[in-house]
Amino acid sequence: MVKPRLKRYGGKQRITYRIIAIDVQSRRQGKAIKEVGFYNPRSGHIKLDVSAITSFVKKGAQTTQTVHDIIRRANVLQ
């Protein structure tokens, strides 16, 4: 099963995240199927590939709670 979830990047106190589609059994830093977005919690900057996210969700992917909140904040799944 595939899940869109966060992958951590950056150094200490300069954390950014990439939103990736990855197999459920893979680790957080594992190889992603596809990168579908970017999230910077310090500045609140969100960049999403809307078509890729909606295609994964239509195929049955379940987002993590944090990614779901980010997507909802960006008004993608309406």
UniProtKB/TrEMBL annotation:
One biological process term in Gene Ontology: mitochondrial translation
InterPro entries with a match to the protein in the record: Ribosomal_bS16, Ribosomal_bS16_dom_sf
Localisation: Plastid, Chloroplast
GO molecular function, one term: structural constituent of ribosome
Keywords, in A-Z order: Chloroplast, Plastid, Ribonucleoprotein, Ribosomal protein
Main localization, broad class: plastid
A single cellular component GO annotation: small ribosomal subunit
The family this protein is said to belong to: Belongs to the bacterial ribosomal protein bS16 family.
Identification of the protein by name: Small ribosomal subunit protein bS16c
Organism: Crepidomanes minutum
